[in-house]
């Protein structure tokens, strides 16, 4: 049911770094202090998994018992804070563009990894028969951290606003939930995660957007 | 302890439709995309019950195991989205007034139904002896979805701002919690729900408002 | 493991009054109605403990089973509401300064008491071996009510914005978690709580602030 842990740890670690960075950048742009930057960064990285664990009654959430991802998120945030603090002009310079391109790819990888991990956790907790539940848990693991980040930062959650962000997670979650019953679990997991990443990157590249109810 | 399920399903369905519509309209007015409209609509409809279930440890919350109300909310939101998309001028026209009047009545029915269902769920889960708890759970089932809607949409929760909204739910919840011990449960439930609906409709009709601490 | 209950009840009561007042004042300044003032006040007072209990699966949260602090918060809020309502000019007068000074001290006491109580609850629930978890639970008990208050009031959480608020709680929580293993529990608890209060008061007095990433 689980693919090679070391590979998976690596993929989740990339996602953690990307999510922590996105939370920290929101906090830095809002001019929050060091603690605010740490809280938003770490919450973005591990908040989705925490919501998932609370919803299925897996308490205390896994992140508290084995805070390895919390630590990784913390280190990421501290590094980012120090770099920005040292180079004030960095936020306006050209390197920020490269940074954002790399982080966008990392973020897509994290979204894919977290989505399938969320489903896996739900299935391992014995809820494999509830299709809607496991898909929801996959998606909330993927996008929940970003929702908490935006609620705490006082902005309408990013996933509600634009780009095919949650949609990529939903599509991959449905794919993995369906495939896991008819083929090798590991392969299904990789297909699910990769489809999330692919949809997300294509959506960013080609500016795909969902329709709104009111035109113009 | 439970009244005729088919009647109750019908009443809850009306509430679900009204709550889903209110969430979807907030999202449409905020110009969120299709996914944002769906998420806000469905969250408003089922969020109160989810909060209640998490608070009493009834996990995963009922809505995930039997997502019939999620489906109903989803269909409601999609229909509303398509109608607004097809008739752009509808949001400014006269039919919107009729729509809002009907939805206001539906919303009151939903508030009444969800409040007594919340209390019933708490009692059936074995917390009948904790008066404060079951009243709170009734109220949070009634108003929780709207609170989540407003937090996600970045506005101060409606229930905190005006009209006797939560008050209607609180009054009916107290009434039902008291009556259920001294008369037939079904009748107490109907009285509780109807008192919520009545107070809510009278408050809208006569613009009742609670006092604020600072005048003018 | 627990110090004299009557003393502790007294200290927690001071914290409850301070937290309820701070929530009520935010609501009054936002011109919310009576219910909004009550909800924000009570949530600020008991919200941290509720979050803690949900995270460790201690459901329904303690506050619902024995709502003594809810009642105390409610009375505090009602008194404050009536006083402001009776004396409209009080919010602009000189007595408000004295009030804010007293409340600031009460708030520091509450932060200290809630932090160590949160850790104690976590340890008594059997999580004494998870350092990160118990420290987190102590801090969330201390600052969680204020975070909920700010999210509901639609402002960026105070703890994310300024003053050494959460930091005081974190420092005291770490201290208590470390000391409790190597000395008498009651004394460790008092040292932990007092260090929170001291850091908090010193930070207010000398305007300590954490650095931000961007200067000026």
TrEMBL record, chains A, B, C:
Main localization category: membrane
Keyword Cell membrane: yes
Domain Glycine transporter, chain residue ranges per copy: 10-83, 105-177
Topology of this chain in the membrane: Multi-pass membrane protein
One Pfam family per UniProt: Gly_transporter
Keyword set, alphabetical order: Cell membrane, Membrane, Transmembrane, Transmembrane helix
Stretches that traverse the bilayer: 6-27, 34-55, 67-84, 105-127, 133-152, 164-181, 187-208
Cellular localisation: Cell membrane
A GO CC annotation given for this chain: plasma membrane
Superkingdom as given in the UniProt entry: Bacteria
InterPro entries linked to this entry: Gly_transporter (IPR005115)
Signal peptide as annotated in the record: none
Keyword ATP-binding: no
Family in the record: Belongs to the UPF0126 family.
Protein name: Glycine transporter domain-containing protein
Protein's organism: Lacrimispora saccharolytica (strain ATCC 35040 / DSM 2544 / NRCC 2533 / WM1)
């Amino acid at each position: 049911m689980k693919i090679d842990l070391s590979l998976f740890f690596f993929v989740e670690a990339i996602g953690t770094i990307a999510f922590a960075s996105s939370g920290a950048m929101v906090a830095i742009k809002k001019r929050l202090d060091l603690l605010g930057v740490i809280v938003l960064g770490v919450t973005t990285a591990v908040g989705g998994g925490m919501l998932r664990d609370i919803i299925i009654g897996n308490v205390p959430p896994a992140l508290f018992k084995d805070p390895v991802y919390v630590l990784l998120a913390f280190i990421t945030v501290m590094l980012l804070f120090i770099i920005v603090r040292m180079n004030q002009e960095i936020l306006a310079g050209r390197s920020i563009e490269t940074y954002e391109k790399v982080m966008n790819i990392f973020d897509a990888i994290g979204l894919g990894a977290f989505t399938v991990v969320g489903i896996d956790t739900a299935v391992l907790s014995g809820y494999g028969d509830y299709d809607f539940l496991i898909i929801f848990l996959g998606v909330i693991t993927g996008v929940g951290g970003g929702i908490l980040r935006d609620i705490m930062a006082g902005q309408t959650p990013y996933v509600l606003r634009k780009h095919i962000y949650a949609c990529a997670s939903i599509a991959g979650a449905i794919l993995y939930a369906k495939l896991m019953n008819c083929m090798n679990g590991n392969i299904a997991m990789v297909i699910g995660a990769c489809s999330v990443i692919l949809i997300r990157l294509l959506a960013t590249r080609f500016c795909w957007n969902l329709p709104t109810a009111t035109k113009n």
